[in-house]
Amino acid sequence: MSVLKSIVGSSHEAVSLRNLIETIGKSDSTTLILGASGTGKDLTARALHEVSSRKNNPFIPVNCGAIPKDLLESELFGHKKGSFTGAISDRKGRFQLAHTGTLFLDEIGDMSLDLQVKLLRVLQERQIDPVGSSNSISVDVRVVAATHKNIETLIEEGKFREDLYYRLNVLPIEIPNLASRKADIPELVRYFCLEHADSHNAPITLNKTSMEIFLSYHWPGNIRELSNLIARYSALIPGGTIDLNELPLSMIPNLMREFLSQKTDSLHHSDNNGNLEHASEDHFENSLSDVERIIGLTQEKVLPTEGLNLKEHLMDIEKDLIDQALKRSEHNVSQTARLLGLQRTTLIEKINKHGLQS
User: Fold this and answer.
1) Which residue range(s) make up the domain with 310?
2) How many CB atoms lie within 10 A of CB 2?
């Protein structure tokens, strides 16, 4: 599959992004990609290279935030033997390695001011000066830069050169957050389920409730978070159908648990047909008997002369009631939650806490 087709989605935002990439990818002008972490800036840069006339030449990525500042100059421009401690031989920098191709400068907002000056000169003159060399080297490179930071704010704070910003921002691309293109989520889920399926199992699927939760969730980690979550569930239940209600809470992002609880609350007020009137009388009788049992426990217990550990005592009562409810419902967690008047996720936490079998 081409890189461009890996930008999945049928929403207006996804279609517009692919069209923009195809349009400006044919240019050699410097491009600045803006977008939050996890939106796919690296994928966009690779797609720009793929549709350009340089596609058969090198694509060289550099993460400016991952390389120590004192080494980044050498990484970009190369160095001569003996130019600093550890420089035991001449070394080509990323600009030379990307000659006739594309250089992708990711997280450009993390570059130091002194290096920004040198990068600006390279963009203007198309020549680099390796560390320790007195001779300039001409390079033919298309530069694509990206950052998740607000460059204009960095300029106001004196952390980014305004002239470099305008030099980089010839052709800007802004990638939308996943929360603003939720219509693409079902398609993205299918794509990642296929991508993360192993050779021995069919791709996983999501049941209706889980997909509804995915559509409600705001995805702070964007597409990267969605991909990682599908990879997790593909490893956890290979070839299976994912029901978030059946998963350990540790496997569900903290912020997503809120949506799961809300969904479970709504289900507590209806049966499978969505009508509370169909609930059985036995359910209410069982719920009443549980309440009566709790009252009896509190009334019958007398504080021993030697005292007691109240916290442990209440924990024992809770464990016993949950165990009884599980047995009565034949270990159906949803029915047990209704018997005890608990949210399903809360009940699962308590079952795990007490080491009970669900």
Assistant:
1) 279-358
2) 10
For 102, the enclosing helix (H) or strand (E) is: strand 102-106
127-128 and 205-206 beta bridge pairing: unpaired
User: Does one domain contain both 165 and 213?
Assistant: no
CA dist 235 and 223 (Å) reads 18
Task: Report residue 271 CA to chain centroid gap.
Answer: 34
Asked whether the CA dihedral 207, 213, 216, 221 is positive or negative, the reply is negative
Q: Are residues 103 and 137 in the same domain?
A: yes
Would you give per-residue pLDDT tens digits along the chain (358 residues)? 689 999 999 999 999 999 999 999 999 999 999 999 999 999 999 999 999 999 999 999 999 999 988 889 999 998 878 677 777 788 899 999 999 999 999 999 999 999 999 999 999 999 999 888 888 999 999 999 999 999 999 999 999 999 999 999 999 999 999 999 999 999 999 999 999 998 888 999 999 999 999 999 999 999 999 999 999 999 999 999 999 988 988 899 988 987 777 766 565 554 445 444 444 444 434 444 444 455 444 444 566 677 777 777 788 888 888 888 888 888 888 788 878 878 777 888 888 888 887 6
Q: % helix / strand / coil in the chain, to the nearest 5? A: 55, 10, 35
8 and 155 part of one domain? yes
CATH of the domain at 208: 1.10.8.60
Q: Does 290 share its domain with 346?
A: yes
Whether residue 274 is contained in a domain is answered as: no
Domain at 170, CATH number: 3.40.50.300
- Give pTM, 2 decimals: 0.73
> Are residues 299 and 202 located together in one domain of the fold?
no
